[in-house]
Write a structure and sequence with these properties.
154 residues; DNA polymerase, domain 1; Ubiquitin-like (UB roll)
């Protein structure tokens, strides 16, 4: 079936089976490879994207779920994501880096909904993302720094 996916504000025509996981449509059909495959069972968060602003594990969601909706991936741009990217770099957050696209998307979702998250807000929002290198402290600090950077820019 041929349908259109809206990803990061751009329309892509895809010819896929409706039950194909959204992750594979994004990576293999569209060619945006920043979103990662980790576990395949919605447990690690490496495949996280935003669908109409909602944090979504793309490895278990059929592509048909996203037809007619706006998908946002790590390749996209938003004010919150840009502040997070700077804070991530400044704080030397990634080690192996594999989970970072999912971590950044989850953090973007958090900052889209809570302007100044507490440590508890961060812990709750980021709990669906596993970092095998254990950089959780750096991630928390980077989220706080992104908030500070955003406030400084006003």
């Amino acid at each position: 079936m041929e349908k259109s996916l809206s990803i990061n504000g751009k329309s892509y025509t895809v010819k896929v089976q409706e039950e194909m996981p959204l992750l594979w449509a994004i990576r293999d059909v569209v060619g945006l490879t920043g979103t990662k495959f980790g576990c395949g069972v919605s447990q690690c968060g490496a495949c996280s994207v935003l669908v109409d602003g909602l944090l979504t594990k793309s490895c278990v969601i059929p592509v048909s779920f996203a037809f007619g909706k706006e998908i946002f991936t790590i390749e996209g741009t938003s004010a919150n994501l840009e502040f997070l990217r700077k804070a991530w770099n400044d704080g030397n957050v990634p080690q192996c880096g594999y989970c970072q696209s999912g971590q950044l998307i989850a953090a973007t979702s958090l900052l889209d909904s809570i302007k100044k998250p507490t440590d508890e807000d961060i812990k709750t929002a980021m709990s669906g993302n596993i970092c095998r290198c254990g950089t959780y402290t750096r991630i928390r600090k980077a989220i706080h720094k992104a908030v500070a950077l955003k406030n400084e820019s006003r």
